[in-house]
Amino acid sequence: MRESLAVLNERLLETDRLKSEFIESASHELRGPVTAVEGALSVMERHLEDSFGGLDDISRELMEIAMTGSDRMVALVDNLLDLTRIEAGAVSIEREEVDVGRLVEEVVKLYEAVAREKDLELVADVPVEGLTAEADPQALARVLDNIVGNAVKYTGRGSITVGAREEDGSIHFTVKDTGRGIPEQNLSEIFNKFSRVHLATEHEERGTGLGLSISKGLVEAHGGTIRAESELGKVSTFHAVIPKQAPGR
Fold first, then answer.
1. Collapsing DSSP states into helix, strand and coil, what is residue 247?
2. What is the pLDDT of residues 171-191, one digit of tens each?
3. Which residues of the chain are under the pLDDT cut of 50?
4. Could you tell me the CA-to-CA distances from 223 to 3, 187, 211 in Å, in that order?
5. 170-177 and 235-243 beta bridge pairing
6. Superfamily for domain range 96-243
7. Is the pTM for the entire model greater than 0.90?
8. Hey, where are the domains in the chain?
9. What is the separation, in whole angstroms, between the first and last Cα of the chain?
10. What is the pLDDT of residue 24?
11. Of the chain's two ends, which shows fewer C-beta atoms within 10 Å, N or C?
């Protein structure tokens, strides 16, 4: 019986490995054509603007649809590549001194226009200066971008606060929103890859369920932890904690 379980586990591990290799290979193959489409659309838009002095309303709407679809395809391919690297333990963390407050403010600024359109209050709650960490700025920005992006997308009214503080030798990031919340029984699942439980919403638009899984991998690659707490129908708060200094320092 034990031997059978061992064989089964080996087969499951091999199947998972082959699946990851297939996803990575397919993603690499898709990256080129998808990037080419995105580039061609940009060139076409500039050419039409230069040659015809602009686009009529229908043409512009169609161009925006094509560009949006292209952007989503590029983002999906990038997410799949990131996920396979994380699962393979091949994430490369390039540490440098990061101005944490500035990083938070830059991510918040990316979503200010969208939040304003939805009449949401989006604020950064960080020290004026002096909060730094030895970390990978691009990876941290990706973590916050995924969490804040979800908060803006799935919060119908109220506010979103993105904070950072130093506590016990760690940097503690928080993203608090007044959205619909997450059922308690689903909190342990939302960081799983392809999880969609936190996206149960009346919105037509759906995510891929990769963002939080990637965020978890990037935080853990820093030697940190990530979790969420929520009161259904009232508030959700995501916590990402990383060491202020690289492990071993």
1. coil
2. 999 999 998 888 888 888 888
3. 198, 200-205
4. 35, 21, 19
5. antiparallel
6. Histidine kinase-like ATPase, C-terminal domain (3.30.565.10)
7. no
8. 2-87, 96-243
9. 47
10. 60
11. N
